[in-house]
Amino acid sequence: MSEWLYQVTGKAWLALLFGIGILGWAGYAQWKASADTHGTAVEDLVVRSGSITGGSEVTETSKRRRGGTTTRRYFVLDAKLANGGTEKWRVDNAVGRSKLEPLIDEAIEVRLDPSDNNMVYEIKHKGRTVVSLADVQKIMESKDKVAATMASDKVTLVLGLIALLLGIVGLVIRQRLNKGLAAAQAAAVPTPAIGEKT
Hints:
The protein has helices at residues 2-9, 12-33, 97-100, 133-151, 154-188; strands at residues 46-63, 69-81, 86-92, 107-113, 119-125, 128-131.
């Protein structure tokens, strides 16, 4: 029985890490949902201008490690820049096709985040704002709140807390077993008598 318990408690650190990971993820999601700005900070956005030569709607489906799939939808605008180069600009699906279709073959100005696949935060056409920065930030805020709700539902928090407690209890039991084993080994070592050669 003690050998089995010794083996099981040797894996307690996995439960501890799992619990810390789940609770950390929930805390981060809550912090991100309550942040003042959602998405990229305004000062990190870059202004670009060009003509839209085409566009498409993209659906990405990826498998999760725990099972199931996640699906992301967004629009990609093909832009021809003033210097002759081309770029692809990504627009969130929640903006809507109806705002983007009239921009085909038109010159526009955008504010985007080059570090996030050229994600567009604002679109202006002939001086008029078609997609505002505030609207995109509201879209990002709603996505952050959905992620926070998923990360902090009761089942997830209880699972994380149970894993954390199991990890702590397992490590304490393992430490006590190690002390008992060390004491038993010390008691089992015979003490040589005076004058006895070892």
